[in-house]
TrEMBL record:
GO CC annotation terms, alphabetical: cytoplasm
Entry's localization field: Cytoplasm
Alphabetical list of NCBIfam families matching this protein: PRK11713.2-3, RsmE family RNA methyltransferase
Domain Ribosomal RNA small subunit methyltransferase E methyltransferase: from-to ranges: 83-238
Gene3D superfamilies: 3.40.1280.10, Hypothetical PUA domain-like, domain 1 (2.40.240.20)
Full protein name: Ribosomal RNA small subunit methyltransferase E
Role this protein plays: Specifically methylates the N3 position of the uracil ring of uridine 1498 (m3U1498) in 16S rRNA. Acts on the fully assembled 30S ribosomal subunit.
Reaction it catalyzes: uridine(1498) in 16S rRNA + S-adenosyl-L-methionine = N(3)-methyluridine(1498) in 16S rRNA + S-adenosyl-L-homocysteine + H(+)
Stated family: Belongs to the RNA methyltransferase RsmE family.
Highest taxon listed in the record's lineage: Bacteria
Domain Ribosomal RNA small subunit methyltransferase E PUA-like residues, every copy: 24-70
Keyword terms, alphabetized: Cytoplasm, Methyltransferase, rRNA processing, S-adenosyl-L-methionine, Transferase
One term of GO molecular function: rRNA (uridine-N3-)-methyltransferase activity
Amino acid sequence: MTAALYYVAPGALDGLGVGGLLVLDGDEGHHAARVKRARVGEELLVADTVGMVAHCCVESLGPGSVSLRVVSVGLVEVGGPRFVLVQALAKGGRDEQAIETATELGVDAVVAWQADRSIVRWSGKEAKALAKWAGVLRAAGKQSRRAVVPAVSGPVTTAQLAQLLRGAAAFVLHEEASERLVAQELPAEGDVYLVVGPEGGIAPAELTALSDAGALPVRLGSEVLRSSSAGPAALAVLAARTRW
């Protein structure tokens, strides 16, 4: 069984070498000591959410903290293009399901999109909603043992999204597209955007705006997927070609 992963603040592992002592405290220390009931000698992973990860061994336990001896530490690097999921806000928590699964599949960043047909609206509560998404990404990152937690931003309007995609490699998932995602050439590096609309679909004017910005409408297959599964399915296609 893979060792449990815990997160510390970015930079907390800088300068830490083999044999060094690391104290896990706060919420993560409490979770390790009280909830997971870590034991002396147990192996744990500690990551700083931006790429550094330390393999550690539990040396001692406190009431709400764990003292760890570092066995190895290093930077986890992922080669190839950087995958960005642009997820339209969707009802029923389907947008959160999408970004959760996308994180488990290796997405590098997530952008919230306030599409015309999005029933869900973040107006007046953007900060709270974005923080909730960030929490979903962090939890999914821990579950999937990721050293890097995907960045999250937005919500963007369609006009802002078109500007973001201009000049970038970008694909808009659309059930009526003639091009297939699996057949597209991918850049060796740089950002690759996957755009997913809400349950009501992408409005024609939006599709035109994104296409005019250079984004290519593509389909995955003959099936019509929910907004909760379209992004992760597309990401799996790209990951299979570049990472797996």
